[in-house]
Amino acid sequence: MNQNADDIEILKNQIADLRKKSEADRQISRDFISSVSHELRTPVAVLRGSLEALCDGVIYEPGQVSEYHRQMLRESIYLQRLVNDLLEFSRLQNDDFEIVMEPVNVYDVINDVCRSLRKIATDKKINLTYENNGQNIFINADYMRIRQMFIVVIDNAIKFTDPGGKVEIKSGFFYGRPMISVSDNGCGIEESELGSIFLKFHRTVSDKNRSGSGLGLAIAEKIAKRHNIDINVRSRVGCGTEFGFIFNKTIDKPELCDIID
């Protein structure tokens, strides 16, 4: 009899836990839809207002018409970026979403990212450097996801650094664990904001961040978690910011035959 009572009590607790989880999931869904609606409202309103002004003939001077066209193009680009980031974030948020793991040398990933972002840095007169010290870090990873994670952070570093500044990428160790650090001497992040930078749709209030979707760092954190990578952030306003990527699970240098197999 006591056993039956205990089983019933366990079942009641399990049902209660499932209800709580279900309600939490529904709340997350409601919050996500609310946030997406908020993010879409402004660019859609700008596009509609601009089109109405052009269609109604309110704007007809060639210079003004060109400016309205440019504005609509900017809003369309922002919307495309937002939709792409939303899809990416949604996929990574699903624990069942499979990512392809294979032996990856993080050194190769960083070199690849630096090649991709070099022109952006050069055009802005930012000195982008990678100091490797001969350190290779081999991990089982999805190459393109890890590349995307570093692109988000390094691109942000370039964005928030004034012309003539520098962005430095270094290999090192954090309490014996391999680490890649990305530091800049840009505007820095307010201490009150540091705890929120990985939240979806969080954007630093800055003229440098008008085109951001607010999902880049949220996506980067999701990728890091899927690869057992910790991210530490240090920042001082007016001095710069440093992101540290700490690898908790590395592998020995893979043999060529292992990769082929």
In short:
With 261 residues, the chain is α+β, with helices and mostly antiparallel strands.
Task: Outline the structure in words.
The structure is a single chain. With about 260 residues, the chain is of the alpha+beta class. About 50% of the residues lie in helices and about 20% in strands. Strand 4 and strand 5 form a beta hairpin. The longest helix is centred in the first third of the chain and has 54 residues, at about 1-55. The radius of gyration is 23 Å and the shape is flat. The model is unreliable at about 255-260 (pLDDT under 50).
Coarse shape: flat
Distance between the termini: 58 Å
Instruction: Report the total helices.
Output: 6
The main sheet orders its strands as 2-4-5-7-6
* Whole-number mean pLDDT: 81
Approximate strand percentage? 15-25%
Q: For the CA atoms, what is the radius of gyration? A: 23 Å
Residue share in helices?
A: 40-55%
Biggest β-sheet: count, sense, barrel?
5 strands, mixed
Strand segment tally: 7
Order of helices and strands: HHEHEEHEEHEEH
- Helix/strand-derived class? alpha+beta
Low-pLDDT segments: 256-261
